Structures are given as C-alpha cells and as structure tokens.
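Model it.
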Amino acid sequence: MDTGTWILVIGVIGIALIFDAINGFHDAANSIATIVSTRVLSPRLAVLWAAFFNLAAMFLFHQAKVADTVGSIVKIRAGEPAFIYVVLCGLIGAIAWNIITWYLGLPTSSSHALIGGLLGAGLVHGGLGVINWAKVGKTVLFIPLAPLIGLVLGFVIMIGMYWLLRKLYPATIDRIFRKCQFVSAALYSLGHGGNDAQKTMGIICALLVAAGLRSPDATLEVRHMDSLWIILSCQFAMAIGTAFGGWRIVKTMGMKITKLKPVNGFCAETAGAVTLFGSTFLGIPVSTTHTITGAIIGVGATTKLSGIKWGVAERIVWAWLVTIPFSALIASGCFCLAKVLHPEF
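Modeled.
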C-alpha cells in the first residue's frame, strides 16, 4: 500500500473516531435525560456517570455482533481503494446530519445516520449489488420495533410499580427511586455504550478490509490483540463525547415529552436498558434515541395520554423518518465529488 493510501486510511480512522465522539455527545441525552429531569443528578455529574458506564460496556459486550452487522452493510471488496471513499463519505454524511439535528435540538438516531450514509455512498459507487440488503432489512425493521418494544416495556414496568408501591407514601417512593435511578441510568448507559460504540468498530473494520489490512472473516473480540486497539479507541471516543454531552436534546427528551418523577425515570431507563441489551446480544444496531423515547412515552401513558406532548413526539418521529434519506443524500453527494476529484475509481 502506497504512502498516500496509508495517510488516507489513518485520516478516515480519525474521522470515524470523531463520529464516535459526536455520537456520544449527540446521544448523551438518551442516557441522562431522565435522571437529569427528575433532578437526581446535575447535568455535569450525569454525563460523567453515563460516560463511565459507556466505557465499561466493552467488558460486558465482548462479542461484537453489532460491529459485524454494521461493517457488512456494504459488501466491501478487500484491497479496493474505492471502498475507502465509500466509508469516508458515509461518515461525512452521518456527521453532517448529527450536527444539523443537534443544532435543532432533535434527538435523531446516529446509528441510522451512519447506515444512511453508507447506503448513499455505496449505491453511488456500485449500485444495488454492493448493498447487503438482509443486514439493512434487519436494521430498518427495528426502526419501528425499538421504540415500540421500549414503549410496551415502559408501560408494563410502570404498571407493575404502581401495583407494588400502592401502599407507600409518595415521599417514600420518591426517596427510594432517587437512589434506584443511579442503577437504572448505569444499566442504560451500559446498553448505549455496548450497542453504539460497536457501530464505529464495524466501520473501522470495513475500512481496514477495503485497504487490504484485515481479513473479512476476522473476528472482533476484546481478547484478540489485533482487535483490542479498535475496541479501546471506539469505547474511549464514545465516552469522551458523552462526557461533553449537550443540553439541547436533554430538554427535549426529559422535559418536553412528558413530566417525569424518579420512579418514572427508573422505569423508562430500565425498559430502555432491557431493549438495548437484547438487541446488542442479537447483533442488531438499534437507535438508542428511538428506544428511550418509546420508553418515556410508555411510562407517561400509564397516567393519562393527555400528559404526553404529542406535538413534540410527532416532531421527533418526522426527524427519525428523514434521517436515513438525508444522510444518504449528503453521503452520495460527497462520493460524487470524490469521483470528480479522483476519476480513476
């Protein structure tokens, strides 16, 4: 591999880690919105709590099934430099969409932005044949399923809590669940770190395959030294991004959808954590944003549907629907520009 390609590969790895950090920054709200809105922790302490458990996730989810799914969305051919540009442009599309939606305060999915970016660049490069539609189909299926599962679990857990706690005074319940939320927030952050950081791991592996530096059949596990640097760098990048998480989306997630008390926050986070743990073990890259939003709505629906601000929820749903197309459009435009600048591929 010539010097220029080496520089390109290193640069794209850097951009992938930047995406990972932005992912953590963008999605920090998912991990901390409930614990902040219930005033159990301040925003600054909450993001540090979430960042720690984002990092710890690598010791729990050591078999990188989600990474394998994301890394094979586009059928990368080993040693073909054009696919390096597919990965690069996919990342640019995802980063651009994340920044736009963060500025607008919309809790959209970094995961789907990344998949949209890969699809856009991949289609422009090689057409329908280079896309692994089975992997795409599994991911797209969970766009509605993840929030629905979170909603149902949030509703059921909250109803169960009402029954279990029916004889306790509200002040006692509040005191108990202000402590319990530390556990539920930690579990949710573990699920977030386990699912989302693996997406960047998959991207880096795909890049190395395209550059001819990694076998397409190589596994990605903590105990393998050739994979350890990928796992550590991605988990650290996400944790750092989470530690600097912004306040814009926290207000939308934790305060504008429905009013939350500590017991509500505990139930929403627990429902979200169960959904993320299950999907990660199955190797399905789901949206942590979709999941926690569904869980919050499910918890809020146990009191009265009018307590949910459906206008805010509708705005969020529209942002979800346009994420894949718009990030794909940005990435495809970038790849077209790359082809103009490098017509040889």
